[in-house]
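Problem: given the chain below (115 residues), write out its structure.
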Amino acid sequence: MSTHCENCGCKIRSGYCTNCQEEAYISFVQAPEMEFSEDFMRKAWEQEAERPAEERKAMSNSPVVTHQGKQYTVRPLADGHHWQLSEVDCPRNAFTMNRDYMVLAGFRHIVEVKS
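Solution.
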């Protein structure tokens, strides 16, 4: 996957072009906990649907865990010491855990994956 957008040349962050896919980047990566207008979210979902299938598939290969009775997908953040847990039924419900809290929650098998 390229590090820059083929259309505008902007850097791709978390799988999204911050220019061409601005709404999707903001709503799904930068501020998933915020409420946005209906028009904004419609545009974000359109941009998500336009992403190449292999990019969407790569993002969906995250492991699914159960924490406090709810299922979450887990993805590592760029710093390598934090993980984002997003609720399977409502992906905008997300929170971040550091390595120590992941181990305390019983997710050592995710934190200590060998590369």
